[in-house]
Structures are given as structure tokens and as C-alpha cells.
Design a protein that fits this description.
- Residues 29-97 form the S-adenosylmethionine-dependent methyltransferase Rv2258c-like winged HTH domain.
- It comes from Nonomuraea africana.
- It holds the Pfam family WHD_Rv2258c.
- The chain is an alpha/beta fold.
- Helix content is 51%, strand content 15%.
- It folds into 2 domains: 3-98, Arc Repressor Mutant, subunit A; 116-356, 3-Layer(aba) Sandwich (Rossmann fold).
- The protein contains 14 helices and 9 strands.
- The chain has a 7-stranded mixed sheet with strand order 5-4-3-6-7-9-8, sandwiched between helices.
- α12 (259-269) crosses α14.
Amino acid sequence: MTLEADGRGAAEDFMEKVFGDYVGANAIFMAAIGDRLGLFKDFASNGPATSAELAARTGLAERYLREWLDGMAAAGYLIFDEADGRYSMPEAYAPVLAEESGMMFLGAAFFDYSTNYGETFHALLEAFRSGDGVPQELYGQEVAESIERFTAPWFEHQLVPVWLPLMPEARARLEAGARVCDVGCGQGRAVIKLAQAFPECELVGLDRYEPAIQAATEHARAAGVGDRVRFELHDGAAGLPGRFDVVTTFDVLHDSADPAGLLAAIHDGLDPEGRYVCVDINCADRSQDNVGPMGTVLYGLSLAYCLPVSLARGGAGLGTCGLPEGRLREMALAAGFSQVRRLPVDDPFNNVYELSR
């Protein structure tokens, strides 16, 4: 084979890879439509349908549904039965496509994240030119809801039954009625879940994004714990509002404009015998080791949100992969923590740490 032919073969192989990536992008785009309009949930609840039947069930336009059904069948998300002209979703697909907050649900993680961030795409291009960031406020409510949906399985299925049993000191304090502070609380799901599991605790959630505080307050009231928790518009890096037995952050530290300052504030606001529970990204210490499918996802998320939001505040700009275990340990020790323990949790996305003052 000549050098020219060999080069052409490599180019064709790469062209096939790019085409495969584009196929996946189109599948995710169409799946995002189905997720946002509740179409997968409708199939899970009501079974097979023609486009006309699905239109009658959902109140959506038949012509658009017909195109979407054919596209999802082409992508392998739905199955078309030529005998009766109906489309169906295999039962095994429901946990992935339709079971909100389930451990296998990917609606928010993939579908939301691949469409909502398009609204800030041009702002991101300008940030590439200027070196500035993209303010969190520009992302809007839909992105905040996407983050809420993405993180929901952690709090619904992991925090209390899986993670806390691996931290006996922290759990004992919670059972005894701890003073708890969740920094970067978002819409409050972690605070609410802890309030439900440990009714003797006094809990506060902090966030610098006012719409998140408003949503968290409403969610706490709806969950029946509004009288036992509070949410404050506050930047944790400026110092915690008191002394706490347990402090938590859930995928917050790497997004922070001042992660070193936030670690120092948490250290100073923690009771001498207290515990800091830190959940952050499971990534390699060396960037060249963050490769393959998961590395691609992490760097895509970083460019879409984590990096520009931090830089918009003149921050450190760690990015999604900027806080591997080695760097977290280094920064935590510099902030005054005496011990950083990584829990034996098998999670491809997150590491869970327990830090002692």
C-alpha cells in the first residue's frame, strides 16, 4: 500500500468516526424532544401507539410526532410494528428513558445537557475570543432544572442509604441532631433529603444564585420540612454563617470561583470534631488520562458550563476535570484539614470524600 493510500484509509476511518458521532448527536437531539415533552413516559405508562394515537394521548401535533417516531425508530430507541402500524418502547428501556430520578435515568444527564446549553453557545464562542466567562445567570432556569434532574439520583438513592453508612462519624452526628450546612445547595434536594432522614438536625442551604434559593424554599415547603430548614443567598467562600457539625458540597468545589477560599471557609466553619462531606468529579490526575467516552463527556460539560461560569466571576476556572483526588488533597491540607478520606464508592462520575478538621 502506498503512503497516499494509507493516508486516505486513515482519513476514511476518521470520517466514519465523525459520522458515528454525528449520528449519536442526532439521536440525542431527537431523544431530548421526547424527554422534554414526556413522550417516553407516555409510552412507559400507556403502551404502543400510532402517531395519531400518540397525538390524541398527548395533545401534540401529529405531523411532528410522526417524524419523531420514525426518527426514534431509526435510532433504535423505539420499535415499529408493521403489522399494526404502532410504535413501542421496550420495557427494558424505561429505566433509562422514562423513570425520573432513577439510578439508570439519562434524560437530564444526556438529553438536557445536549440541548439546553445551545442557548449560550454564541456567548461561549465570544468567551473563547475574550478569555472572559459566561455568567451563570445567562444559562437560565432550564439549565438549573437540568442540573437538578441530573443530580437527583444521588440524593434519592445514594446519599442516605449508600454514602452515609461509609461515614459512621458523620452519620452519628446526623442521628444525634447535627447542625448541617450544604454549600451550593441548588434547589435544595440534598438538604430536604437529609431533613427527612434525620429529623433532629438543623439544616441550612447556601447558594449565590437567587432563583435556586427561591426554588429550594418552595420545594422544602412542598416536602413538609419547610419549618426545619432554611436557605440563604450567600457565597460560601465569604465564610459560613455559623459553626456546623457537618458541611456538604455536591459537585460544587470544582465550579467555585475561589475553591481554595471555599475550602478554608468550610474548614473554619466546621466544628473541631465535625466532618466535611465532599462529592466531586471522578477524574484522573493527568489530563492526558481523561480520555475515551467519559473524558469526552467531562470536557464537554466543562466547556458548556463549569469552566465559563467560574471564569465569569474572575475565578480559578478549574473546569470539570480540574479537581482530581491528588489536587483536592493538596488544597484541603493547605486549607487546614488534617485528613482526606476517599470512600470506597464505585461511581464512574463522582468521588466521595470525608474530610476531618
